[in-house]
């Protein structure tokens, strides 16, 4: 069975982007990038990986799910940012059809459960906070790229919601001289 992996960069104060949707302040240079391109080459947009000569064929993901706001971060330059993966965007808005991109307003939990039943690599939960909150019970692995910066406000890792606490256990961590720390967690029980 495929796992749903919430793999995301997050600030020290728990935001996946700043108050004006800033995500470009996350470090993309430094010693942590070698680990990222080795372990998660398929989580780099298709065109950027091609420009950098990164081989995405051995990655762990075969699908990526995201909310409309996360998808819109690359528009108009990258309307289909992860063409090497099956892409699913959850939204009620109309979006132009693009290569290897499915747009749906279906229940994310039902869609992800159906995706998990099919063969393939893991499913990457790319963002955002609302989708992560809806899928919190389906997350099989949480991989945080903790960045050494503070936003003060912005889009949180998970949107506020009334739900029971979910306990995670740390299974591995790697600290880099850049100040970035990549930590893997799995749900307890």
UniProtKB/TrEMBL annotation:
Residue ranges of every copy of the Bacterial bifunctional deaminase-reductase C-terminal domain listed in the record: 5-180
Gene3D superfamilies: Dihydrofolate Reductase, subunit A
Pfam short name (any one): RibD_C
InterPro entries tied to this protein: DHFR-like_dom_sf (IPR024072), RibDG_C (IPR002734), Riboflavin_Biosynth_HTPR (IPR050765)
Name this protein carries in UniProt: Dihydrofolate reductase
Organism: Brachybacterium fresconis
